[in-house]
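Field notebook, page 271. I keep forgetting to write these up properly, so this time I am using the form the group agreed on. The chain and the ligand, 1-O-phosphono-alpha-D-glucopyranose, are recorded exactly as supplied. Prediction of the bound pose follows.
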Amino acid sequence: MIKQAIIPLAGQGTRLLPLTSIFAKELLPINGKPGIEYILDECIEAGIKEIIFIISKKKQLIKKYFYNDSFYKKIIKTKKDKRIKYEYEKIKKFKKMIKFVYQNKPMGTGDAVLKTKKFIKDKFFLMLLPDDLIIKRNCSKDMILVHKKYNCSVMASMNVKRNTVKRWGIYSKEKKINKNNFFIKDVVEKPEIKYAPSNSAVIGRYILSKDIFKKLNNQKKGKGGEIHITDSIKRLIESGHKIIGHNFSGKYLDCGTMKGYIKSSMEISKL
Ligand code: G1P
C-alpha cells in the first residue's frame, strides 16, 4: 500500500508573477478553492494517510493556512455559520495529515525530494507536483493500481506537441505493456527538440521507490543549475530499476503558467 505522499511547495512561482510576488501560488483560488486543496483531495481519495509538504521560509503562508485555528474558532463562535464550520472541519482534517519540511534554497525538485528522506517509512511513496492538476479522473489512484500490479515505480505520461518538448521531462519507451502503460527505457529533462527521444512527457505524478534517495544523495546539478528528480530517475533506470510510464485518463491542467492558471478555473467551473 502507498500511504505517504510528498508535495514540493518551495518553488518561487515566477511564471505566475505578479500574483506570486507576496502570495503562495498553491493557495491561489481555482474556481473558488485553493489549488493545493485539489491536490489534497486527490491524495485522500487515493488512500494516502500522510502528506509531507516541502515548503520554504518564504512560503510560511501555506503552513499558516492550515494553522489558523484561533481565527476560525472566534468566527464560528460569533457567527454560527454552517459553511464556515464545514470549511474549518475540512482544514482540520487536512492539517492532521500534513507534516512540514523545509527547503530554503530553490535547488530543484530532486533536492526537495531529498529533504523528505528521513520521513519516508515504506518502500514506495507518491509525489505530486502541485502545478499539475488532473481533473475528471484520479490519476494517483489509477497509478497506485498499476503499482500494485507490477510492484514497481510508476510515472504519469502525456503526449505533448513536439515543439514543446523543451518544457518537460521526456521519455524514451522500452516496451509497451498495454494501451495505457509502458516500461521506460530512459528519461531526459527538458531536451532540445533534436535530442528528444519522443513526445511523451513526464507529468507531475510519481510513485517512487526509496532507492531514489541513494541516487539523490550524490546527484549532480543539471539543467539550469538545479538538482532534477528526472536525472536521478534516469540513473535509477540505468542501474536496473523497472519504471512504468502511465498514460493517464483525465484532463491535464497546467496551473503553473498564467495562461494555464486562468484556463483551469474555466475548465473546473464546467465540471
Ligand atoms: C517538472 C519536471 C519535468 C516535468 C514537469 C511536469 O518541471 O522537472 O520533468 O515534465 O515538472 O509538470 P517544472 O514544471 O518544475 O519545470
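OBSERVATIONS:
- The chain is about 35% helix and 25% strand.
- The mean pLDDT is 97.
FOLLOW-UP: compare against the apo run.
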